[in-house]
Amino acid sequence: MFTGIIQAVGEIAAMERSGNDLRLRVRTGKLPLADVVLGDSIATSGVCLTVTDLPGDGYWADVSHETLDFTTLGERNLGDRVNLEKSLTPSSSMGGHIVSGHVDGVGTIVSIARDGRSWRYQVRAPEALSRYIAHKGSITVDGTSLTVNAVSGSDFELTIIPQTFGETLFSDYVEGSRVNLEVDVVARYLERLLQAGGQAAAPAGLSWSQLKEAGYVND
To answer: What DSSP character marks residue 168?
Structure first.
């Protein structure tokens, strides 16, 4: 598990293809690796990868055909930058929100605009994910935990403060950039609980009346 608080930005140092799979080497920059051992997980632009080797300045990981097909890792090139976060430990500070590192889909940066000292990003999610994205809810973009400021159909808006802009991949994005998205796990479990209780979710997502009937909200 992760928090979505990016600890460092690394870069892809090597890519070795074997059939439909990929062996990936990531140079981790300022991310401390003294407490990382083989088998540990590191979120790499939001994708949970297992460390298979530690060459000293980074790590190697195997990326399956499934992961290449459903995330942006299959589109990366040598030298591309990636957001990095080590997995939670019992002593970790719990910032951000609960992040699994299992990407739900790939979105697209639609527009970028300055807003004072910050930036406003409009992101278009796959239509199937839109029902899980709520105003003031949480979403993970390339591993970064963020709050949704507005939602319109499959589009949602984010405000990126200077700290986040400078310490994550947001400074690299342009209109058309593709990003890994992970929706809030609570939304997924809530939908599943309602379905299990005979409250099948409507095609457009959960309704306010369904939440009231299930006892999750009051009048």
So the answer is: S
